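Q: Here's a chain of 162 amino acids. Please give me its 3D structure as tokens.
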Amino acid sequence: MIATLTNEKRCTRCGAIKSVDAFNRHQGRRDGREAQCRQCRHQLKAYAYHVGGGKSQRLVYYAQYQARRVPRSEHRLEYDRGRRHSDKARARDILALAVRAGRVQKPDSCEVCGQLAKGHRLHGHHADYQAPLDVSWQCTTCHADTHLVGARIVPEWEEVPK
């Protein structure tokens, strides 16, 4: 018996030619159906279930996992504790919202060195976190230099500026 393209299909596991209705749907396959018939898929899943320990083994693993993990509420509390009273976080959030809303425009170039910000991000540097919209737009390099002023470690071979 030869399988036709529309009504019948051969199961790759048992080799039987069956109606396409005996195969589950599968969008990723060319014909839109699983390679194994429903009966063979059921046998494969039942075997995997019993070899894997079944439901009881999964419940034991899940209980162990739950005992190890930190509850989500504790993660949230740690995150909030660090940001809730932070002037820095508040200033960043207000600036980000203002840029998204169009109330603050980012320039095309760094205000310090004038480099165009094609492939580089511009950072809004806050001199004062109490004025969240008063920022200096700087490229990554200039922003790092701004924060390193006074904290720069001078290598031995360089002369210390006087």
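Q: Can you summarize the key feature?
A: Residues 86-148 form one domain.
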